[in-house]
Amino acid sequence: MSTAMARDPAVPVHPLLEEVAAGRRGHEEFRQHLRDTGAPMVERTTAGEVAVTFVDEPGSAAVSRLSVAIGPVVGRNTVDVPFTPVAGTPFRALTLRMRSDLRFSYVFTRSGPDGTDTHVPDPFNPPPPFSDYPEARFSGSSVATLPDAAALPWLAEAETLTAPTVASAVLRSAILGNERRIWVSMPPGGSPEGTPLPFVVQLDGTPDHSAPAVRDALVRAGRIRPCAVVLVDQLGPLRYQELRCDPQFSRMLVEELLPWLRDRHPLSHDPADVALAGESFGGLCAAWTALHHPAAFGNAVLQSPSCAYHPDTVYGTGAGDLLRRNPVPTLIADVLAAAPAPVRIFHDAGELEGSVTHSRWLHQVLTDRGYDTVHREFAGGHDYAWWRGLFADALQWCFPPERP
């Protein structure tokens, strides 16, 4: 478990829980307090740390544990300390000492008497807007924002807006021999004076993705040029083939998707007005595709990219490790091998995710090669809780009111 969430047995029980356990505060009164003030409960302990108390009411479940998007697993990492029953109540609680600047997605993992696990959001902290994803390991999570976490104001603004209109259509690919949904969202007011719009193609797209609403908040505030958002369906498990530096998938984006979009919408042909964006393997694909096709994509948005990827990387066990070789990751090797491409790159990564070392390596290589690039690190893990909000920074980098 990451030192960002080290358990300290000396952390005191939250005073409200002591009152509930002692009968000085009723169960329903405590439930209503959590609903009104929000969960988890946070108390400052030092300048840079807080005590964070999670409360569950699991019913017949035998054990409750906390699972968070910080740790070695991409997705949910389960803290090995179960919640403690609060005497005389249906509640169970867990208090952990944490860095005060964290933001993270989490769920409660409830283990029933039959040994099955159920992942549920915090009953006192419902998932925020834009929290449903095709992959269950990310979808439907609650989000904890601790007191010193960097603000994500444009995401907060986007969450208050009416959901933007998204037009759906099917793209049939001769290159890949398959078809997928494409969703397109135009900016508020459409295309100003009929001029072609800049646009961002977002991989791992869904019709409920946060990108269109974040775009609307920025456009209305005059922080970016009006731009279209294109959301690309990744066809479930096929994403693990398509997004890992697959030349055929990149060809589909360039030779089929872009012409198909421009036939239907007033979109710019200037690569400086086109961005390819993705998270995790989607970020890897965005970078690799833009670097190999700079005449199509002049901008790439990499959110926690899986830039350690190489198809020949294998891991042995025991004696097998004596034969293991670690090649230079594909994306980094390609940057080093080719002349710099005219691509601007926005790149963010979590300080507490396992791939952060490779992200730092990629940023250093891009910088040394002379790319126009920016790299941000956030206090968290491999987590949509950050990606949703930092996408606003990426749009401002790609499409500022005055073109770079």
UniProtKB/TrEMBL annotation:
GO BP of this protein: carbohydrate metabolic process
One Pfam family from the record: Esterase
UniProt-listed PANTHER family: ENTEROCHELIN ESTERASE-RELATED (PTHR48098), IRON(III) ENTEROBACTIN ESTERASE (PTHR48098:SF3)
The protein, known as: Enterochelin esterase
Organism in which the protein naturally occurs: Nakamurella alba
